[in-house]
Amino acid sequence: MKFVKWTFAAMWLFMGAACQDSEVNPNGPVILTNSDFRNNTDGWVAEVTDYSTAQEEIIEFQSGHKALPEPLDVSKKSFMLSGHNRSDDLFMFLKKKVTGLKPNQTYSIDFEVELASKYGDNSVGIGGSPGGSVYLKAGVLATEPKKVKEGDDYRLNIDKGNQATGSDAVPVLGNIGAGADATQYKLIQRSTTQPITAKTNEAGELWLLVGTDSGFEGLTNLYYNKIKVVAEVKPGN
């Protein structure tokens, strides 16, 4: 009987090692984050930029771990961002640091973002549509995206493009329109149409960024429900 027990124990150890080897595939897809904000903000941090020092007190920026708005399931939590676009260019964003990747390795990265919006695709507002003129962007960088002061303005320290135009590191996923005649909150999904290419730093780190670049000169309230980011080693690297 002891021999049988030791045989089964050895088999389990071998199977466990095999499972671990299959999961740690250096060239396979890696989930960088799969945040649903049920319990906390999962390492994401909120910031706002693209406004002047004179507008600092009137952009009304707020963020936090909040319940989804009605008529959605208010028992579920989300990451809420809210701001009044006084500059015609307000950028509200979330960022998160990812560690444990291969140092100096180039990855192909895809985003899937789900958020609650109540703004119609063709709605009319000051400066632009509350739905059609607020653009959702996502990006990946080897250095931390930060708000920096340039003269009397606050800007982002990396190139994200401007409103409907993105950059190689921070492309546009679409706008926040929730439908042609939307007036109440619903969940909308946006994703990358092609992978973003990014190279880790010497510590094997990347920074993830998701945010809205606004051409609508009014108040925008959004609730991020899910953010999933998947990476894969780029062929030839």
From TrEMBL:
Keyword check for Signal: yes
UniProt keyword list: Signal
Domain of life: Bacteria
Record's keyword annotation contains Signal: yes
Span of the signal peptide: 1-20
Protein name: Lipoprotein
